[in-house]
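Example A, followed by Example B.
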Amino acid sequence: MKIVLHIGMPKAGSTALQEGLRSLRDPLAEAGVLYPKSPVIRNKQALLVSGLTSHGRLPRHLRHKYNDDSEKIEQDAQTWLQQLRERITNSSLDTVVLSDESLFRINSESALTTLAERLRPLADTIDVVVYVRQPSDYYLSMAQQTLKASHEIRSVEPINYRATLEGYAKHVADTLHVLPYDRRNWPNGDILRHFFEKFLPNVDVSLDDVPKQPNTSLSAEAMSVVAEYRRLFWSDANQRFTPDTGRLIRALNAADAEVDGSRRPRLHESVRQAVDNASTELLWLRDMHGVVFDELGDYEGVGESVELPPRPERVEDICQVDTERKTALVYRALRELAEPPAK
């Protein structure tokens, strides 16, 4: 029996992959593949990270679900792991697929040893899978994600891969698969189809009816509105989701679809180059794992001396923001929020 452990990285197609696996849970089980249910978050095995890092460094969505009750998180994690052991012991399974992108942030020897001790009794082999994203793309996606529960803009800094990948290779994986996040090289641009081709090639399950995940990325203009809103009303509540922020983001998503102009945020060229060129571990990824990001060309600038800018204070410091489009978004979102709900 084999475990396929998908560890992210964050903002590299994880949600689409997890939702696809969740929607196929029953036909997968019939084919001898278990994608376990989670008692917390329906599409991923978030409790895997419990006990591997300090409570304050647990994923904020997990802490939010448990109202920061660390004892309850650990209790539920142990119960879930025991139920998973019993399910595997009492079933004729070929493969167990586990996925949580928060595992990418786990790289200490003690934590990875603990994770291996949890998983080793369950399977003969463990394949660890990670999709890695180009640093500047990852930085922009994480900046968006951060704004959902904070007004602070992420520092412009290099993205690191090596400690995590070497840690999993040494302590957890029988085989480590490092793959570039690149929709252009996936069947139909679909990470789920790519994952099945690579890691579940003999599983006879139709992927045609799997619902496509909507694009929920915010435009640069919407990002700017959210950041200013959080700064005005929730400046003392960073890393905390609030219902009103969620409503605002949903209204801005709807407005983004109606207002002319590009929805795709773009970093200032100086910021993009700073993140990519400062990320010297790109050279290690290329040389050790054969992972190359085509947009970086010949990698000539990677590793050169880079002066990183000070921490940005506004979205406008990192992205091109159209002020007229931003104003139009605000009024469209206000209309959306002011309309009474449909009966």
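Example B, a separate protein, is given below in the same form.
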Amino acid sequence: MHCFTHQDVEAVGVCKACYKGLCTQCASDLGLGLACKGEHEQFVEATNALLSRSIRISSINKHGSFVVPGFYAFLGAAFLLSGIITKTKASPFSIAMGCGFVVFAIITLVANRKAWAK
């Protein structure tokens, strides 16, 4: 591959923003990627920072996959209990809501486990 600007020079890499071939004169090495010198450096730096933050947050939040399903399970249990333990008669609406929240908690837990396993 040749440099996009200097067609007679071999490219050393590709710009992370525009994917054009870059020679040593045109490339700005930003550590985690190359950028067109003077053109895409800010964009590539912002992209690298975003990627680094995302990796850091996902490594910190490994147990976060249990928080949302746990909350839904808690809501389901609360609705089920309030539907069953009423002084007059069982509330079909509360029981249905409780069952719905418990099922949704299970679905969310399974989906999160699959997502975090990758």
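On Example B: The chain has a mean pLDDT of 87.
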